[in-house]
Amino acid sequence: MSQPTGATQTTAFIPGGRAKIGLFLEKKKGRLQGLICFKGHLINWGSAPPADVQLFLMGVTGGQNDMNWYLKVLKNYAVVTGRASREEYWMFILFNFIALVLLSIIEGVLGGMTNTDQGVLTIIYQLAVFVPSLAVGVRRMHDTNRSGWWLIVPIANIIFTLTDGTPGENKYGLDPKSR
To answer: How confident is the model over 146-156, as pLDDT tens digits?
Structure first.
C-alpha cells in the first residue's frame, strides 16, 4: 500500500502483538481524511473514522480488553487473597491515572468557571479506589511470591511490581496467567 501524497504515516502495534495497523492521515480542505490498513483490509473515511475503527484505535480489540482489568480490580474490592498478574496491576494503575487526569481537567474547567480551587472530585475518586488499590497491590506482591507487607517498602515494591510473577502455583494461589 503506497502512502497518499502529503500524508503522515503512523504504524501502531496493539499491546500483546495481536494486530498491526497502518494509519495514513492527511488534511484536505481543512478536513482530516484517512486510510487505515488493518489485517490486510483498507478502511477509508472522510472527516472522522467509523465508530468501530475509533474503538479499535483506542485499543479496545475485543475479548479481555483493557477496561476489563480495571473493572475486575473494582469487583474484587477488598480481596487480598490470591494473585494479580502484572497486566492486571498495571492496567489498573493506567486507568487510575487516566481517570485522575480527566477529573483534574474537569475540576480545572469547573474551578475556572466558579473561581474556586478545590479538588473535590479527585479526592472522592482517590478515596473510592484506595482500598482496591491496596488490594491489587497486595495480590501483585503475592504473584511474585512475597508477602503483601512488601507494599509498604518504597523502592522494593516498585521493583516487585515490575518483575514477572512466579510461574505455576505458589503459596498464595494459582498462576493468574494460567486461568
So the answer is: 999 999 998 99
Burial class (CB in 10 A: 0-12, 13-18, 19+), 68: middle
Nearest-angstrom CA–CA distance, 58 and 36:
14
Whole-number Cα distances in Å, 131 to 75, 76, 148, 159: 12, 10, 13, 21
> For residues 170 and 146, what is the distance between their CA atoms, to the nearest angstrom?
10
Take residue 84 and report the three cell numbers written for it. Answer: 494479580
Q: Which residues of 99-126 are buried (b: 16+ CB within 10 A; e: fewer)?
A: bbeebeeebeeeeeeeeeeebebbeebe
Across the strands, what pairs with 26? 33
Q: How far is CA 67 from CA 62, 165, 170, in A?
A: 11, 22, 27
How large is the C-alpha radius of gyration of the chain?
21
Measured in whole angstroms, the distance separating CA 64 from the mean position of its chain's CA atoms is 12
Q: What gap in Å lies between CA 139 and CA 96, rounded to an integer?
A: 17
Give the predicted TM-score (pTM) of the model: 0.61
